[in-house]
Design brief:
The chain folds into two domains: 122 residues, Immunoglobulins (Immunoglobulin-like), CATH 2.60.40; 346 residues, TolB, C-terminal domain (Neuraminidase, 6 Propeller). It contains four helices and 34 strands. Strands 1, 2, 4, 5, 7, 8 and 9 form a seven-stranded mixed sheet that branches. Strands 21, 22, 23, 24 and 25 form a five-stranded antiparallel sheet that branches. A four-stranded antiparallel sheet has the order 12-11-10-34, with no helix packed on it. β14 and β15 form a beta hairpin.
């Protein structure tokens, strides 16, 4: 189902008047499944996910039975065309279907079927694997240069509770980006605040500080972060990013790096550590990511080209280098895991599953900013066999699927996708079984499914975390003008 904002908003007014609160018997039966939004048919969900509330456009009356092993666990009568499942009853469904599936039988009364139609049931699979309690993300208007409100938020995945971590109202309207956490911990985090009195904000071991990297070490800005699992180090790429706008065609913009290097920050000593191999102008490195044991740093790299004229020649390889935390040094051997020259395309956002088995990255035809590439897809590499894993179910053929992260048990991925309208990035969750078989992804559940259309914000940089982040109130003082 494609989003139709106007019809959904108008149908909401109609259904407030026409909805009924009694269970009915529909006059006819259909062999097809209902056209619901979001599409939850055939998805695989965690055993601790929030209710999968859904809607049918322009329904004057809607009802749904949730069936496990032939028995109706609960029956819901909707309002305004929306099936809202109480959390207590939803938990009964999940518990009964864990490790198996449940079916949903939906009946709808609307203009096309004024006497009601019962549709063929659709299945939802409930994995035994749980998902992390929270996901953190940035909310921002999907513009090119300006924004009105931007903030870092956290959402409970077992309920609909969403809270702000920090917003630009707190930080004197700076741009907030590139948040990250060590080993999924809600007790430590970092983010960048770009603008007046900005810097890199580090909350670690109960201490809150602002760091201006342009004044220490090699005096390079920091961009994309990767916090080492032991919490001591943060690897950064230092990117000089530019934008070019197209006059013709569907693609409005290209984002690229004029230069990018890798640096390492030691949170214990406050030093910036560099390796000459990752500080040259001839090669552009970006998007660092650690292995779960902290013994390897993964990143992408491309030979430099004349930009923006040769931007379509920028093809990023996927590389890995050993790391010794005792000596704060990188090993001599650099392994190539994905060779863009031979395989074609370009890699970005490498992330390794918690068990060290799978490497998830974004593939695009060129460059390293795939959110503006409709062809961008997720790809998975099995690090034990070196073979590609089929995750075609996770990808949309028409719109970009991009930034992603793994859950702490390695069984779930969350990523941003522009499927639906091609404009706004929304969050999808997908299962990866121990056998490497991927499940059909599903849109992040909302209390009112229309919220996915009414919220005119893009979700960026989703990261799983183990609990609620609570920053000290003193974070506001970091952005006060220096006396």
């Amino acid at each position: 189902m494609r989003f139709n904002l106007r019809s959904i908003m108008l149908s909401g007014l109609f259904m407030m008047l026409a909805s009924c609160s009694t269970w009915k018997e529909p006059a006819s039966v259909s062999d097809s499944e209902p056209d619901i939004f979001p599409d939850y048919s055939g998805v695989t969900v965690p055993s601790n996910i929030a209710p999968l509330n859904f809607m049918v456009e322009e329904a004057s009356h809607i009802q749904a039975s949730f069936i496990v092993d032939g028995n109706a666990v609960t029956e819901i009568i909707g309002k305004e065309g929306v099936i809202s499942i109480p959390e207590k009853e939803w938990k009964l469904v999940l518990d009964a279907a864990e490790g198996s599936s449940f079916s949903v039988v939906v009946s709808v009364w609307d203009n096309a079927s004024p006497d009601g139609v019962r549709y063929s049931p659709f299945q939802v699979y409930v994995a035994e694997d749980e998902i992390d309690p929270y996901v953190a993300y940035r909310l921002i208007e999907p513009g090119y240069r300006s924004w009105r409100q931007v903030g870092l938020y956290q959402r409970s995945l077992s309920s609909f509770d969403e809270k702000v971590i920090v917003s630009n109202r707190t930080t004197n309207e700076t741009c907030l980006n590139c948040h990250h956490f060590p080993s999924y911990s809600s007790e430590s985090m970092m983010f960048h605040a770009r603008g007046e009195n900005g810097g890199t904000i580090l909350y670690h071991n109960g201490r809150l500080v602002k760091i201006n990297f342009n004044e220490i070490g090699p005096k390079k800005n920091t961009t994309y972060p990767a916090w080492h699992p032991d919490g001591r180090f943060i690897a950064f790429s230092s990117n000089s990013t530019r934008q070019s706008f197209y006059l013709h065609g569907k693609k409005p913009i290209e984002v690229y790096d004029n230069a990018s290097d890798l640096i390492l920050y030691d949170t214990r000593t406050g030093e910036v550590v560099t390796d000459p191999r990752f500080m040259t102008a001839e090669v552009l490195e970006s998007f660092p990511a650690w292995s779960p044991d902290g013994k390897y740093l993964y990143y992408v790299a491309s030979d430099a080209h004349e930009l923006p004229d040769e931007v379509e020649s920028m093809h990023y390889h996927l590389l890995r280098v050993p790391f010794d935390s005792q000596t704060r040094s990188f090993g001599e051997q650099i392994d190539t895991l994905y060779n863009a020259r031979f395989s074609g395309g370009s890699a970005s956002y490498p992330r390794i599953s918690a068990d060290g088995r799978y490497l998830l990255y974004t593939w695009s035809s060129y460059g390293t900013f795939p959110i503006w590439h409709d062809e961008a897809d997720l790809a998975v590499l099995d690090l034990e066999t070196g073979e590609n894993v089929d995750v075609s179910l996770w990808n949309d053929p028409q719109h970009a699927d991009s930034y992603h992260s793994w859950s702490s048990n390695g069984r779930w991925a969350v990523y941003g996708s522009r499927r639906g309208d091609g404009r706004y990035t929304r969050l999808y969750l997908a299962h990866m079984g121990e056998d490497g078989v991927s499940g059909k992804p599903f849109l992040l559940p909302q209390e009112d499914p229309r919220h996915n259309i009414w919220r005119l914000k893009s979700y960026n940089v989703p990261e799983f975390i183990d609990g609620e982040v609570i920053l000290p109130d003193s974070v506001e003082k970091l952005f006060e003008p220096e006396q």
